[in-house]
Amino acid sequence: MNKIMKLTLAAATAALSAGVAHAESGNTLKEVQARGTLNCPGAIGSYLGFAEVDDKGNWKGLDIELCRAIATAIFGDPSKANIVPIDWAQRWPAVQSGDIDIVIKASGGTLSRDTELGLQFSNSYYLGTTKIMAHKELGLTSLKDADGGSVCLPAGTSIEQQVSSYLQRLGITMEIVPIQKDEEVQAAYFSGRCDTFAQWGPVLAIAASQSEAPDSHVLLPDVLAVEPEVMIVRQGDDNWVDIANWTLSALLFAEQEGITSANVDEMKANPKSTEVGKFLGATPGVGKGLGLSDDWAYNVIKNVGNYSEIFERSIGQDSPYKMPRDLTALWNAGGVLFPFVID
Fold first, then answer.
1. Entry pTM
2. What is the mean pLDDT of residues 84-93?
3. Nearest-angstrom CA–CA distance, 135 and 58
4. In DSSP terms, which residues pair with 179 in a beta bridge?
């Protein structure tokens, strides 16, 4: 090996070492560990299927489950997730100020949020389509028929821009009625304040199913946008977004490999592959680079379950909403989700 190659290798090794050291000392992780809780946003009221409070005052939903999964990765205990109720517009100042540690609140990854607000995104954990629901009695066959009508939507979200852009493409005009609280948006639509209601397709379907007259509403065929829902953190702490990404990947890898909360102990004792053994902490190495223990992924699956388990009990077949996985299925089941590689 010549001198130049030796110097290059030494520099690369030093850079790699520095990167690992940085990954192990993320400021957000240190702050969360020192506090003893992970602060995540809830909803003002309920966002059915994603963040809602049951009749005993307990938070539940897909977004809440993901927060608990990250809390478990850090502390080994899902109860270390602290849910802070905030409205949609508060998400960004709350994470930028440190009042919450990560935004897991049905939030899409957009250019302006990245480049103007200084935020950073995880991989997508849910792929949502923005749709329109209308009162069936209006006889609308598409949104173009609603020219001159009104549309209710949640304020402070990307849906308002999606609706505005779609109306421009159609060449029609509608009164846009942004409302802060989710229950108030739904109440305005169901009371007849608005002709139509713009939201995620799943949220609209859930809202209609919970209404007094489910058959009185129709989902129009228009698809206004396809939005990847992501976990969002402040820029500048790569270790923190790595922890979010790898926690999501752990949920997906476990589902892919058939590892559940019920069989995870057996899988750890008798791993079916080297990758599964490392993933569950039977052999060392899965935690050090993240600043976590080697049993962090095992703890997540043991206490929270894999992605399928949390999806089904939150909004899927084990919930009141019976939503299909659709595009949010694994890559090998007709969907778009996939885990990173365990090596």
1. 0.82
2. 93
3. 33
4. 154
